[in-house]
Structure formats: C-alpha cells, structure tokens
Amino acid sequence: MTDLIRKDAGKPLRDAMQRHGVTQAQLAARTREVDVRGQGISVATVSKVTGSGRTAAETCRLRTAWLITSALAEPLQDHFDMPSVSTDTVER
C-alpha cells in the first residue's frame, strides 16, 4: 500500500484547520463523524499528520488522509501528494 505525502510539511492542513476553527482534538472527533465505520482517527494520529517539528509524520495512509480532508471539507489533493513511481516497484 502506498502512503500519501503531506504538502509543504503539513502547512496547508494547519491553515485549513485555522480557517475552519478546529483544534486537533476537534478534527479527530470530526473524522469519526465522516467515517462510515464510526472509528475516525485518534488525536495522536491527527497530531502527527497535521503537526510540525520532529514528531510530525511526512506520510500517512490514504484512508487517514481521506478522513482528515473529508472532516475539513477540503480536497485531498490540496493537502497531499502521491509519491513518485520508483523503477524499483514497477513490474517489468
């Protein structure tokens, strides 16, 4: 499975959170509302994906990115990039 890469070290995500007036805990709660399973994402994971500094994660699973951007009502592609294709993983 391929992970998505945060754009600009997560700054667009933090900007979106500020525009929508939500904290990391509130965003985590919103992910439960948009998740058909009702699970959502933990505050710790939201913090890693939206945060900055040494504890931030530059990549995350597609499902995590989708839930976060859906909870923010923002397009996925505004916040995440797909990794480039490596010749090591291409079938020949």
Helix-residue proportion: 40-55%
What class, by secondary structure content?
Answer: mainly alpha
What is the 3D form? globular
Distance between termini? 19 Å
| Number of H/I helices | 4
Integer-rounded radius of gyration: 14 Å
Strand order of the largest sheet: 2-1-3
Low-confidence runs: none
Strand fraction: 5-15%
Q: How many strand units?
A: 3
Query: What is the H-and-E element order?
Result: EHHHEHE
Main beta sheet: strand number and arrangement? 3 strands, antiparallel
Mean pLDDT: 91
Structural write-up:
- The protein is mainly alpha-helical.
- It is built from 4 helices and 3 strands, in the order βαααβαβ.
- The protein has helices spanning 11-20, 24-34, 43-50, 62-71, and strands spanning 4-6, 59-60, 80-81.
- It has a 3-stranded antiparallel sheet.
- It is globular and about 35 Å long.
- The mean pLDDT is 91.
List keywords for this structure.
42% helix; single chain; mainly alpha; 3 strands; 92 residues
Question: TL;DR?
Answer:
With 92 residues, the protein is mostly helical.
SSE order and pairing:
Elements: E1 4-6, H1 11-20, H2 24-34, H3 43-50, E2 59-60, H4 62-71, E3 80-81
Antiparallel strand pairs: 1-2, 1-3
